[in-house]
Amino acid sequence: MTQTWKLLSRGAAVGLLAATAALVPAGGPAAGRAAAPERNASVLDLIPADTRAAMLAQAPLVDAATGLKATVDRGGARGFAGLGLVDDHVTLWWKGALPADVRAAVATARRIAPVEVVAARYSRVELSAAATRLAPVTDRHDAVHRVRLRADGSGVEVAVEPGIAVPALPATGVPTAVVRTEELAPRSREDDAAPWSGGARIWAGAGCTSGFGVRDAGSTDTYVLSAGHCGDLGAQWTDGAGEPIGVQTHRNADHDTMLITTASPGGHLYVGGSHDNVRARVVGWTEVFPGQLLCQSGATSAWTIGRPVCNLRVEFHYDDREDLVEATQLDGEDSARGGDSGGPVYAVNADGTVLAAGTTTRSAGPGFGFQDFATARDDYGDIVPVTGVDTSTCRVSYVVTESWATGFAAAVTVYNDGPTRAGWNLGWTFGAGQVVQGHWGGTFTQSGSSVQVSNEAWNATLPAGGSVSFGFTADGPATAPTAFQLDGETCS
């Protein structure tokens, strides 16, 4: 899918929170479902305008942060403390001098969106070591929910149940704060049919929600992704009306993920109420960062409010055995309900399509806990979402970063869900006489309205699940091309 964005200034600060997960026993969700939206509604129609604008404005920030994260991951721990979306820019917290590869990555990211580098007092490695020193106490104390690493590198937090005495904590060598918060509890549509869409009610003795149809990029294996706490290996899963979906063949209990094998995974999500057919097409997946705004479409929330729960701001990733992500529903709504477990967590695109971000695990009031899609990929190999309508293995984000009377500047990020590419070429056709003038990050050729961009020597490798960014200035209107081809394959 082609995304065209104008960078807006919106609030999305990095903070802290609490959350829970939910199962629904046989008997179904509580009564009181909301009125169904109109049949031709899009997910965009179901999200409040200010929330929708804030989410869409983050597209270039996510592109920039994704490139930075890839460089940090390749280089090892070093001085990295955290990475997040803060207001209208990306913030990288780092202890000490930036290595050469990170400096280069920051320079590239700044061509896509504003990037601020902030000195951190402690690195992520130092904070993780402090959390390890706390573990002998926190792991055996029922009132302690979690040890959190602050993304800004300022210290760690110990989340403790309200009203319970705080255990004596050992010295950690870094500032250690106690935060009182309710523990996130696990959360577990009504009659789907193959191909199985995300957001539907699924059953195996108890009710949960389907997350995403996924496929193994290296084989022909296909599955439905959901929450691991919903069922056990070998369980037979059905839809809400009892039609068989498949058998649970994979489970990671720590990460709360599971796979149900099926020959018919779908590439859409239910995003409206329980008994309407409002769906959104999945076109790929996204990394998630503190400050990012997401939605979730659990089956019980659909029954209760007739729309997705959005304005879920990512707060931080757990750095423990579970590796979950916490978020906060910024309007004070319940972030999830019993039976939402396993349901899709996603980012919304300007055309109403969505990107897989994870699956629901827990909630507590506005607190929300989910497993990100990147961790599910770590669990089960090179899985990628099944995409609606097409079977492309690439996605292009086209960001207009600046425009003026006679021209514009754009940044392009190519996401690869196919095999690693040793060299790449992206092509498109302009529709309004645009002419490329300057460029960075690729070798450009233009013949008439047709543009081809190939790799430079330094960015020739495009790994499976990875991305590459480049950009240009051009004369002409800032309208986006309608299609892109990566090595001859049309991208979504």
TrEMBL record:
Protease keyword on record: yes
Family indicated by similarity: Belongs to the peptidase S1 family.
Protein known as: Cellulose binding domain-containing protein
UniProt entry keywords in alphabetical sequence: Carbohydrate metabolism, Disulfide bond, Glycosidase, Hydrolase, Polysaccharide degradation, Protease, Serine protease, Signal
Claim: Ligase is one of the keywords in the record: no
Domain CBM2: 387-492
Signal peptide: 1-26
GO BP: any one term: polysaccharide catabolic process
GO molecular function annotations of the record: hydrolase activity, hydrolyzing O-glycosyl compounds; polysaccharide binding; serine-type endopeptidase activity
A Pfam family reported for this protein in Swiss-Prot or TrEMBL: CBM_2
Domain of life the protein comes from: Bacteria
InterPro entries in the cross-refs: CBD2 (IPR001919), CBM2/CBM3_carb-bd_dom_sf (IPR008965), CBM2_carb-bd_dom_sf (IPR012291), CBM2_CS (IPR018366), Pept_S1A_streptogrisin (IPR001316), Peptidase_S1_PA (IPR009003), Peptidase_S1_PA_chymotrypsin (IPR043504), TAT_signal (IPR006311)
